Structure formats: C-alpha cells, structure tokens
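Cont'd.
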Amino acid sequence: MPKSVRPRILVADDDLGVIAAYRYVLESSDAALRSDGRTTEEILEAELFGKSEEAAIPPGERWRVTFVDQGDDAVAAVGASLKDSDPYSVVFLDIRMPPGLDGYETAKQIRQLDRVVHIVFVSGFSDYTEQALIEVAGPSHRVSFLPKPVWPLQLKSKALAVCRDARLVSLCRTALGNRICKQDPAVQ
Amino acid sequence: MRIASKLNSVMLTVFIATALINYIVLQKTIKPHFDGIENSLALVNHKRITDALDSAAQKVSAGAQDWGFWTDAYNYAKGEDRQAFEEANLQPAVDVVSALHLNAMVFRAPDGSMIWGEAFNLIDKSPIDGLAQEIAGLGYRHPYLDGVGEPTAKVGLLRTSQGLALAAVSIIMRTDRSGPPAGTIIAATLLDVAALKSLTGVEFSFEEIPPTGTALTKVPVLTTLKDTMVTASLIPHLDGSPLALLYASTPRDISKAGTSAIQSAIWSMLAAAAAVLAVLWMFMRIIVVSRIEALKNHFATASSGGRLCATDHEKSSDEIGGLAKSFNQLADEVNALRDTIAENAYLNGMSEWAAGTLHNVRNGLSPINLNALMIHDLFNAPWQRNVKSAVDELRFGATSAERGEKLSAYIISKAPLMVENADHARTISGEIELASKALEEIVAEYERFSRHETECEEVDLRDMIEGLVRTDVNSRDPQVVCHVAEDGAVAAANRTILRQILVNIFKNAVEAMNGQAREKHIDVQFKQSSPPDGNVAILISDTGQGIAPENLKTIFERGFSTRPDGTGGLGLHWCANASRSMGGSLYAESNGTGAGATFVLTLPVSINSLKDAA
C-alpha cells in the first residue's frame, strides 16, 4: 500500500527547458500546499469577495515529482520505489537522453521491473515507431505518447488521467487483494 | 592449386603417358618382329649345321660310290687279283684315303668281313689304329645286298672311338651296275666340329642321348634363353637309329638390337615430346598463365586505393581479354555504386542532422510554451479579477464609504504584486526572446551545414576544440579530464562541418569511457605533416574501451555510425566522408579492446592547400 495518497511521478529528460515546464505544471500544486496560514490581505479579500480559489487545489492535482536526466537514473529510481513499496504511478520519458540509455532501452528495463507503472513517451523526434515502443513498454493501455514541444496544459491533463487510472488500480489492489490482481491480466 | 602448377602437372602427365604408350606399342608391335627374326635365324643356323653335315656326307658318299661302282673294284671284291689291285690302286693307302678327304676307307665282303681297310689322320697323315677295323665291324648292312632298294650309297653318322664320323656305305658293283653286289665300300671322315663351326659360323655341340631317351626328332626345337636361342634336334645313326643330340646356340643379338632400337625410338620420341611440350608450355605460359596471373595480381590490388581500378588486359580479343573487359565493366559499376553509397551516406547524415534539428527545435519551443503559459497565469489569477472588480466598483458602483476604503486598501495591497507581475512578465518575455533566438540559431546552423560545399575558411583548431571541450565534454561528463596541446594549429575547413566532426569524435570518446572505473582522459595533439605536404593532423586520444583491430576500418563504414545526439550528431561514416570533402581524412588507431583509441583527423593547412587537394 502506498505511503501517501499523493501519486508519485517520475520525469526523465535531459533538456532544462522541458524540465522547467514539467516543474511549473507538476510542482506548482505542491508549492501551493506548502503555503502558510491566511494573511491580512487574504482575510480582507475574503471579506470583500468571498473565499479565495487559490487555496482550493484539487486532490488529484497533488503529486510527488522526481526529476532525472539520464535513463539509467530513471531505472534506478523505479527500482528504489518498488523496494520502498512506494511505486511511481507514471513515468514521463524522453527518447533521446545521451550519453546513456535512450528512452527505448530505459522503458524496456523499467517494464521489466514494474509491470504496472504507466509510461508516457515524450519526444521531439523519435528514432522508434510507436509500435516498437509499445512492444518493449507495453501492454498498450499502460503506454501513452506526448509530442514535444511540451504544452503544459496537455501535460497536466495527461498526468491527471494517468494518475487517476493508477489510483483505481491501487484501490483495486487494496480492495480485492494483490493476489487476485496479479492473476487478472486485465488488472495487470 | 595454381593454374601454372596444373599446367605443369598436365604436361608431365602427358609426357609420362606418351612414354608409356610408346613403350607399350613398340613392345607389342615391333619387338615380336625382332623376336620372330631371331627365331628364324636360330632355325636357319641349325639347318646350316645339318646342311653342312649333309653336304659333307654327300662328299663322302661321292667318294665311296666312285670306288663302288668300278668293275676293277668289283673284281677285287670278288677276290680276283687282289694283290695286283691293291698294288695298283690302294698303294700308298694314305694317299688313296686322303685323296678323297677321308679318314678311313674299308672294303667289306657281303658277309661283312673286311677285305681291305685303312684309316689315317688327315692332318699329319699318321695311321689311326683300329679305326678301319672298327668301321668294318659296323653292324649296318646295305639293304641292296639283300635285294632291297636301290644301290645308292647310304650316308649317315656313326660313333667311333675317335668320335663321330660321317660315313657312306656304297655297294660294290660293276661300272655298268650289272651283276650281283660284290660287297660294300665304307668311306668315313671324322667329324671336324671346329671346322664345321668355322664353316657354318654357328656354335653347336653333339650331346649323348640320355639313358631315358629323348623326345627330340630331326625337326629342331627352339628354346629361348636370356642371351641365346638354343635349337636342338636328333641326329640319327647311319642305320637310322638315334645317334646324338645336336644343340645349336644362336646369340640373341637381334632381340638385343631390337630392344636397343625400341629404347632409342622411345628416347627419341620422348625427346621430341619433351621439346613439343616445352614449346607448348612456354606458349601456354605466355598466352594464358602469365596473363591470368597478371589479372589475378591486378584483382588482388585493384581495390587497395578505395576504388576498383580498371585493367588494361581487355585489349586482346580472346577469352582472357573478355574476362578483363567484364571486370572493367564491373569495376565501373562498383565504383559508381560506391559513389552512390557515399552520397547516400552523406544524405543520410543530412537527414540525421535534420532529425536532430527537429528534435532541438521542438525542445526549444517547450520553454516558449511554458513562458507563454506563465504570463497567462500571471495575469489570470483570481486576485487580479478581484482587483478589477474593486476598481470597477469604485469607479462605477454605488458603494459605501467603509466598503470603498476597504476596496482601496485592497487595491493598494495588491499594487506591489501587480508591479511584481509586470516585472516578472518582462523577464519572461525576455526569456521568450532568448529562446526564439536559440531556435533561430539551430535552424541557421542547419542551413549553413546544408551549404557546406562552398564555404571554407581558416580555423583556429585550438580555439574551436577548447570551446567544444567546455560545451560537449565537460557538460556530458564532468569526470572527463581534457588536455589540449599548447601549440595550436590552423586548418582550412568549413567551420560548421569541422565542428560537427569534432563534436562526434568527442561524443564517441566520452561514450567510450562511460561507466568505467579508471580515470577518464582525453588528450588532443596537433601535428604538422613531415615532410610538409600542407596538412595538419588532430590526434584525439581517449582512455576508453578501445577498438578491436578488425573494427578499425569498419567503424567508418555505414552501419557503424553512432546514435545521433541531441545536437544532430553524425556517424563516423559521415565524418569520414565530410573530412574527405574538405581535402582531409579520418582514421582511428587503437591497441585493442580496453586500450583506448586515437582518432586522427587530417586537414589542409591553408586554403591553397585545400585547393591543391581538390
């Protein structure tokens, strides 16, 4: 059972500009959660206009995000998360990450460790076809694709959708027991 | 096996076969003729002996019949006036006997008793004691004495104590052959074997008939020995009974001559065959083998220069010329194919660069998207809508003073935040501008790369490499220690192309050392060519995993290109082609796996050198 209700997201990309986009979309909610109590201005604002919307961060948009810039670091992170019984719900994976493993090889190794994590391939130009990537990272319902340039809102939508599915899987595991889930390929 | 060896083997086989066939043919066809001649000669020699015996016997017979068919001798044999006859005709006895070339002469009465007889040695005329009596005691009785047959003399051989003797037994009758026989005259001459050998020229001997008898007849039987032919026949007694065996020996000179002739013929034919084969071999060498060897040598070195070189052996109109012509056509096609492959490799590199550019552009757009969203979020926060509401309410709404004061206080409290947002928005817009410029540079770099054929300049190699060390080595792996030689160098090259080649080499070097425990070093040296030919060499050595000897050349072939990196890196094949297009070269050296590698990039030193190289 995961230690926290907030899903874990792993981002593997070597481009600093792309990482900045990830951080803005995925960590802003985290920063919002860390805000202190209400200030004088917030009290005045609430008196004049009602309750501020800023504090309302949907629970589904609260993630714990880890960033790596190399494929082998991503594989190691997934391995560590499984060891800690705190697996990642989704991995956003770039294809080209020289000089180490590329996205293809990284996804292959991650899938060998974790059959449940959702892998989202994020690429500006892929050296592999989608079919080839699904073959190593599949099953197909655990694989998605996002083209670059990264559109922050698309990124957020994908994160929300994948983590929701991951949450359902987690509840299934909890309600029905891991043993049944393991036997049911649909749940896998 | 080489063609020359095969040719030699065939020639030798033909030579040996010729010799064997000739030998067999001669042995089977010529030799029997010689043997036949030899056999005939042996029989002829044997006949010569028997003829000689017959001839001698006829002489003895003639002498005997001369005395036998004489009335005086008839009366003498009858017993009339024997003394007078003897004194008149038989004295001196030695002269009478030797005059007929006889050794003995005997008058014998019909009852077989000797009337008169004498025997002498023909050489010294000495009497031979007892021989006449021995001959007189001959048991043979002429058949005519009994009225059988004719009165002609009977001749033959008989054995005496002095040896074999030729004898003739003649009837004694009147000269006119009338009246009954009065007895017989036996004339005999001892067989002079030596004289007979000398007369006939044949080596022969008379042998005793063995006690067990003999199967031989008067017809000679031929026996072939190693060096002689031996003929043997039966010699009958005067009375027809077997007397002795005549053995004649004829040397096998004819067969020896035949064998010698055959051998001479074979040697002559072999010599002729050898001469013919030698001439044929020489012409085969000149016309076929040497030309094939020349073609083979050409084929072996035709590709040493990187392109297949044509051969000039197609000038001849025979099959070898046709083969050479086919090779030249093939060489043209292969060279055209190599050029096409090289061009395709270049285009492939171009497409890989384009793919890398596309990747970089898309990555470069991400911060622009983000900055746009950040600006949107800056001016879309709920407090900003509240500020607008407050302003609208103060300007247009009927509000109480207390509320108006609170609204004003609220607006004032948000003023710093609005200023901060404006500053932040300016900052973000500046970053958008920078990101746009970076994208522009990425596209411009690709544009410069696509027109590289016409743009060359003198490049400070040390300066470029030190920049690449900072941007492409240290950023990839901070653990890599780079050393660039202090003595710099200048090369004439396309700056963009050269940079890409060096980026690729450094990228390979860093990747070769990725994950290794020992120290990671890259060393860059510059060497001017010696003797100076207008080139400078850049040697980039790493302490990475090295290159196996069998791969030192294949890494520059298509299919061994490294994976392109984020800056549009290109394979070594493209790098090698690109270096050649600038009048240089690129090759690798390594002591094997685990021993690091050195990439050597040579370039012209000056623009003039580049033109000379072109």
